[in-house]
Design brief:
The longest helix has 46 residues. The protein is α+β, with helices and mostly antiparallel strands. It has 6 helices and 10 strands, in the order H-H-H-H-E-E-E-E-E-H-E-E-E-E-E-H. Helices cover 48% and strands 19% of the residues. It starts with 13 loop residues before the first helix and ends with a helix.
Amino acid sequence: MILNRPFPLDTPSRQSFRYTFYAALCVFLILVLLKPFGLDELKNPKLLFHAVLYALVTFICASANTFLLPRLFPTIYREEKWTVGKECIHMCWQLIPIAIGNWLLTHWLYKSNLSWHNLFNFLWITGVVGIFPLWLNILLKQQRLLKKYQAGASLLEEQLNQPVSTPRAITQVPEHIVFTSENGKEQFILPPGEIRYITAADNYVRIYFIKDKQPTTYLLRNTLRKAEDVLSPFPQFFRCHRAYIVNLKVVQHVSGNAQGYKLHLKDVEELIPVSRNLNAQLAHKLPL
């Protein structure tokens, strides 16, 4: 089902403020140009002022939802579990506080009755006006991103299968990697070729490697940034995501969906995500 397809979860940023501003601007333009709900009876200065207030309600409510919900419910707002259906529910929820804000603002501006009937009317009008364009935008965005990253993954796949045309500079690197725990009391040593990837696990890093031809993991108390520093002499290791460091020499296949690129590693079932802002770096590093 299309509702179960992966969808990118945008982290709160300045760009999020820009999107909520555009939504508020659309509200302002609709009220000023179309003058619905009896606004045609207002003269221009008053009409503009009221339109600005309704747009401000949209901006505040949408911004609060965008920035607060991921922090209040971090287990729900995880990109690896985010889908088209969850994005639709999230966007529909955005309409509820906006409708309530418009209901209260209308009472303040026009002394309307604060009744459940009026609140239901605001919820109904806001839903009817907003749901269709929101869902249409989500579906179109999913299809556009899916085609974009599938095409990009095909190019990376071709690049991955091509032999390296120019010889790389040969540098002396250690035969083994030594990971040390944060307190310095624990060490874990293994050859770089055995490592498949490393991921963050709260205050630990989990190292996925091959031992006796079997996938194995090792949990070490440290940060991914410290692990990245330890791996810096080895060019095959690439931090492809805020939570993942991957061994590019064991990448066998690159696929793509609406969330971005996924790396398929030798002897590993899990697909390793690539942060969208690191796509260019990945293309530059492959093939290794």
